[in-house]
């Protein structure tokens, strides 16, 4: 890889607006635990980052500080990952076909690939002034979003379900099949992204299933639910039933069940299962216990059950972490 293609942080891509409109650059990823490429370009106040990652093992999360106040259009085209945007998204699952429009200027961002294999993330970064003009001029239904951008207020608009239309997929498949002349290339890219924005907004504006009203939790209720979480963590090998847990914490089952989901974005059962598997991964990396011991210590009746659950969550078998 030539010196001019080396970079270490996503911030190194942010100056894509310094490229001449229509100029396309492709770089090799610099990470030691994966291979792949990232392609960038800009056109008319719009920047594109199209990255492809290939992994053969569990990879480390990476993070950066968003130093420029872009409005982002994010699309997960292949693979799954978690993304955290400080104050807006907390380890949000970007499953295949997930997409959003996000504005969170001057904030920390953490990304974590799930499992291993191939991943493609397509990101569009639009200068705030341009997005304000687009929303205000063409979509009066989103005028309130333009007001948030103008005021510097963070937000995220997520598709009600994982849905990419055939027209959207066509754009992703053909965005780089653009004319050779720089001016025509810039015109082509900008027109394709504006079309993609209109299609995405159409999906985002569709009526979704009404969200249940949040449960009103007093400070004492939250303290009891956090105590319930601590009990589940300490006893993940043999967790108490919901009825037993509610008695131990002095809170009724309904409030415990609904409040737990509200605070931790997970059901009690799902929380225990996820904690078990994360603890298993930690123990495997320590290398002091064999797989059967880890499985039994964490409450799995059979090692085979543990192996299936582990592979379902992380995309690899427990034993592959030792290779």
TrEMBL record:
Is Iron-sulfur one of the keywords UniProt gives this record? Answer: no
Among the Pfam families in the record, one is HTH_18
Q: Which UniProt keywords apply?
A: DNA-binding, Transcription, Transcription regulation
- The HTH araC/xylS-type domain sits at 226-323
Does the keyword GTP-binding feature in the UniProt annotation? no
Superkingdom in the source lineage: Bacteria
Q: Which PROSITE patterns match?
A: HTH_ARAC_FAMILY_1 (PS00041), HTH_ARAC_FAMILY_2 (PS01124)
UniProt xrefs under PANTHER family:
REGULATORY PROTEIN PCHR
- Report the protein name in the record: HTH araC/xylS-type domain-containing protein
Q: Which organism is it from?
A: Niastella koreensis
């Amino acid at each position: 890889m030539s010196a001019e293609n080396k970079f270490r942080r996503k911030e190194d891509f942010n100056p894509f607006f310094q490229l001449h409109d229509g100029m396309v650059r492709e770089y090799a990823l610099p990470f030691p635990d994966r291979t792949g490429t990232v392609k960038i370009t800009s056109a008319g106040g719009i920047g594109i980052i199209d990255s492809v990652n290939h992994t053969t093992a569990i990879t480390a999360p990476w993070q950066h500080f968003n130093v420029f106040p872009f409005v982002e259009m994010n699309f997960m085209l292949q693979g799954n990952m978690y993304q955290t945007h400080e104050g807006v998204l907390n380890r949000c699952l970007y499953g295949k076909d997930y997409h959003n429009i996000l504005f969170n200027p001057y904030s920390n961002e953490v990304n974590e690939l799930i499992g291993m294999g191939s991943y493609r993330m397509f990101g569009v970064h639009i200068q705030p002034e341009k997005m304000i003009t687009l929303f205000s001029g063409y979509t009066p239904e989103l005028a309130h979003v333009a007001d948030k951008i103008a005021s510097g207020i963070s937000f995220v608009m997520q598709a009600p379900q994982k849905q990419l239309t055939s027209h959207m997929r066509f754009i992703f498949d053909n965005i780089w099949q653009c004319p050779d002349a720089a001016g025509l290339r810039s015109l082509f890219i900008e027109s394709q992204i504006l079309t993609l924005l209109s299609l995405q907004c159409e999906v985002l504006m569709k009526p979704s299933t009404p969200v249940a009203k949040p449960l009103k939790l007093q400070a004492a209720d939250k303290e009891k639910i956090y105590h319930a979480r601590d009990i589940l963590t300490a006893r993940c090998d043999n967790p108490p039933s919901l009825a037993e847990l509610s008695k131990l914490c002095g809170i009724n089952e309904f409030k415990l069940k609904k409040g737990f989901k509200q605070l931790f974005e997970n059901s009690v059962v799902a929380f225990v299962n996820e904690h078990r598997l994360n603890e298993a991964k930690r123990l495997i990396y320590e290398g002091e216990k064999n797989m059967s011991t880890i499985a039994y210590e964490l409450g799995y009746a059979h090692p085979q059950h543990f192996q299936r659950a582990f592979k379902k969550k992380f995309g690899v078998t427990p034993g592959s972490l030792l290779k």
